[in-house]
């Protein structure tokens, strides 16, 4: 049972363009929504995160938009750069003992010159 | 600070062999986790430990056992490896305290079972 659905599976964007990755969740008890970035051969690393009482969070070129009523959230990468080429995972936290995260299936982003 | 370290980086096993993946963190985090990553399936939680001395099953625990040896170390054991356990395994740790619930990941162990 996939509780966090992520799309698209892969994405090709030209340098300077906007990359948009979408996620939808089912469990309304989720209370924290991070995005992780993973480069080949490395472990994932936290990129940006949002809590459900906020509709948008921006950090540099990266923005999370959050729609609580639709149970959807998305990552926008403005002015995409070749160095942004990586796999991106959305996730959602299950409240309770330990910060258990349910991850989406990942989006492989390629930014071309 | 080394962060989260994992050993080994690569391993090839034959079906039925056993092995232990080691993980250690030096950030004094309470919670630790083991994930497996397979193409098209994201990261799936195998086991986690909310504190020293406690462990709980995650989404895909079958075929694995874990030990939280102390606050720093959390090991994953495959008693009888199967080809379906071919995957990349990541260990992570978290302070598990608001407002950030960031998980810090190790570099991974790439395991092939033939």
Strand content of chain B: over 45%
Largest chain interface and its two residue counts? Answer: A-B, 24 and 27 residues
CA radius of gyration of chain B: 13 Å
How many DSSP helices of chain B? 0
Provide an overview of this structure:
The complex is a heterodimer of chains A (113) and B (114). Chain A has 113 residues and is an all-beta fold. Chain A has no helices and eleven strands. Chain A has strands at 4-7, 10-14, 19-25, 33-38, 45-50, 56-59, 62-67, 72-77, 86-94, 100-103, 107-112. In chain A, strand 4 (33-38) and strand 5 form a beta hairpin. The mean pLDDT of chain A is 94. With 114 residues, chain B is mainly β. Chain B is 0% helix and 51% strand. Chain B is built from no helices and eleven strands. Chain B has strands at residues 4-7, 10-13, 19-25, 31-38, 42-49, 56-57, 64-68, 74-78, 87-94, 104-105, 109-113. In chain B, the strands form two sheets. In chain B, strands 2, 4, 5, 6, 9, 10 and 11 form a seven-stranded mixed beta sheet that branches. In chain B, strand 5 (42-49) and strand 6 (56-57) form a beta hairpin. The mean pLDDT of chain B is 94. The A-B interface holds A 6, 9, 32, 34, 41-46, 49, 51, 89, 93, 97-106 and B 4, 31, 33, 40-45, 48-50, 56, 58, 90, 92, 94, 96, 99-103, 105-108.
């Amino acid at each position: 049972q996939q509780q966090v659905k992520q799309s698209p599976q892969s994405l090709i964007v030209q340098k300077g363009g906007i990359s948009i990755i979408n996620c939808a969740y089912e469990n309304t008890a989720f209370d924290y929504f991070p995005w992780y970035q993973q480069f080949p051969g490395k472990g994932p690393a936290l990129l940006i995160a949002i809590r459900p009482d906020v509709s948008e969070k921006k950090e540099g070129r990266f923005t999370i938009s959050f729609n609580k009523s639709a149970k959807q959230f998305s990552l926008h990468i403005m002015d995409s750069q070749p160095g942004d080429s990586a796999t991106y995972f959305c996730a959602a936290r299950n409240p309770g003992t330990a910060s258990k995260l349910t991850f989406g299936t990942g989006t492989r982003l390629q930014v071309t010159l | 600070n080394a962060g989260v370290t994992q050993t080994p980086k690569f391993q090839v096993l034959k079906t039925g062999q056993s092995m232990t993946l080691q993980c250690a963190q030096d950030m004094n985090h309470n919670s630790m986790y083991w994930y497996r990553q397979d193409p098209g399936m994201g990261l799936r939680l195998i086991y986690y430990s909310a504190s020293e001395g406690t462990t709980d099953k995650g989404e895909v625990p079958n075929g694995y056992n874990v030990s939280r040896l102390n606050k720093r170390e959390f090991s994953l054991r495959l008693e009888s490896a199967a080809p379906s356990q071919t995957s990349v395994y990541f260990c992570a740790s978290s302070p598990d305290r608001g407002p950030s619930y960031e998980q810090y990941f190790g570099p991974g162990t790439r395991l092939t079972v033939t």
